[in-house]
Amino acid sequence: MNPPTYPTSLAAFISRFQLQLPQASQISHNVRPAAVLIPIICRPEPTLLLTRRADSLRKHPGQVAFPGGKTDAEDASAIITALREAQEEVAIPPQAVTILGQLAPLDSSTGFQVTPVVGLISPDVQFFANEDEVAEVFEMPLHEALTLSRYYPLDIHRAGHSHRIYLSWYQSQFVWGMTAAIIRRLAQQVSI
User: Fold this and answer.
1) Which of 58, 98, 151, 181 has the CB geometry, 3.0–4.6 Å to 120, for a possible disulfide?
2) Which residues are in the Nudix hydrolase domain (predicted)?
3) What is the pLDDT of residues 91-126, one digit of tens each?
């Protein structure tokens, strides 16, 4: 079987991603594991698939996010968690995802250690939002997402601790917090 062929920009991204080691993460203080899928749609102009969380959710309502969530006891790995959550939230079949690898885990403000999993998806895959969890599904051009200058730092002081978050916009979507940090980290890893 012949390996798939990708548009030049996506082939370059794949090479840079696979040739660079993930940035070392800081020592985690969070012990509850979680994972998200960073779905890259293999269009002629590759895109990132993002969601906007349902406004009815208790945690992070209305925020832009990747499909993902906490690790269940039966999940054998972060990849299994990310694929399961992507199927639950936006109906991406696990067998439709080609896993490229993982980024180093990040700590969330809600006590989770989140592992981002990068996966490629054919443009033929249909996405269907689980309305209980997802208000909207949208795509962002990969080259725009990976432009480091689009992420603006903001230092937050809370409970006697300082930490930096990143803010960005895409069309009418406000991308910030964990999602912006994950995209920014991916952009740093593949930048030359």
Assistant:
1) 98
2) 31-162
3) 999 999 999 999 988 887 777 889 999 999 999 999
What does the alpha-carbon distance between residue 100 and residue 89 come to, in Å, rounded to a whole number? 21
Q: What is the pLDDT of residues 5-46, one digit of tens each?
A: 677 778 888 887 877 655 555 555 657 889 999 999 999 999
90 to 99, 102, 148: CA distances (angstroms): 17, 20, 27
| Token code pair at residue 68 | 């993902």
Strand, coil or helix: what is 34? strand
Question: How far is Cα 84 from Cα 104, in angstroms, rounded to an integer?
Answer: 20
- In sequence order, the 6+-apart residues with CB closer than 8 A to the CB of 168 are 150, 151, 152, 174, 175, 176, 180, 183
CATH topology of domain 10-190: Nucleoside Triphosphate Pyrophosphohydrolase (3.90.79)
